[in-house]
Write a structure and sequence with these properties.
The chain is 31% helix and 27% strand. By secondary structure, it is α+β, with helices and mostly antiparallel strands. The radius of gyration is 17 Å and the shape is globular.
Length: 219
């Protein structure tokens, strides 16, 4: 069994909020005049990461299925004269990179993970296999526009950041992955459902992939 203690949890639920409204609401969490080119997901994720005060000994694992959806739409819409700025911020790890660069944080390791229905389980497996004293598991999605209409985007904007430690001191709870029988029935846990579990702080115990059972217990 792989397990760690949850020592911090920060969430940002922008739901169906417009990107400009999100920027106005969250701008005070960032240095003055720094949010103009940040994406909506970058803003939401940055708000959850800031209280953790990342340091060089930390490992960061980032999970997102669609990442910077709005920026990707803008980049594609900019053809036949593609925008270099939109391209730069449309890549998958952009939401984390925007914040690491802005706050000049160096971290020990950075693992971007993508996927669909099994994404939280895959990202958590990476996080629990890391040997850093503290691993920050973060992730989120950005509500799409025309990509949502085509079924290629999230229908809501949200972000989360979990600090996972090998020490139980001041722990909020425990999260673990156990080996499950390969012939068992699994119930995939997509990103939005994982966020809802964290937001409600609900205990969880279910097989989420062909070989893994996820357990979350809160203090």
């Amino acid at each position: 069994m792989l397990e760690r203690w949850i020592t911090a949890l920060h969430l940002e639920d922008a739901a169906t909020e417009d990107a400009l409204a999100t920027r106005e609401r969250l701008k005070d969490h960032f240095p003055k005049n720094s949010t103009r080119r940040m994406t909506q997901l970058g803003l939401c994720l940055g708000t959850t990461l800031a209280p953790l005060q990342l340091c060089e000994s930390d490992t960061v694992v980032y999970a997102s299925t669609y990442a910077e959806t709005r920026t990707l739409e803008g980049y594609l819409d900019s053809f036949p004269n593609p925008s270099p700025t939109l391209f730069q911020t449309s890549i998958h790890p952009s939401a984390v990179q925007q914040n690491l660069i802005l706050r000049q944080h160096a971290v020990r390791q950075f693992f971007p993970v993508t996927g669909d229905l099994d994404l939280p389980a895959r990202a958590l497996l990476v996080a629990l296999l890391c040997d850093a004293p503290r691993v920050v598991l973060c992730g989120g999605e950005e509500r799409g526009g025309w990509l949502l209409e085509k079924g290629r985007a999230s229908d809501r904007t949200f972000a989360y950041a979990l600090a996972l430690s090998t020490s139980s001191t001041d722990a909020l709870g425990r999260i673990a992955l156990e080996t499950a029988p390969p012939a068992g029935t699994s119930h995939p846990l997509p990103q939005a459902a994982f966020f809802d579990l964290l937001q409600a702080r609900r205990p969880f115990n279910s097989v989420v992939s062909e070989t893994r059972r996820l357990r979350i217990d809160w203090s």
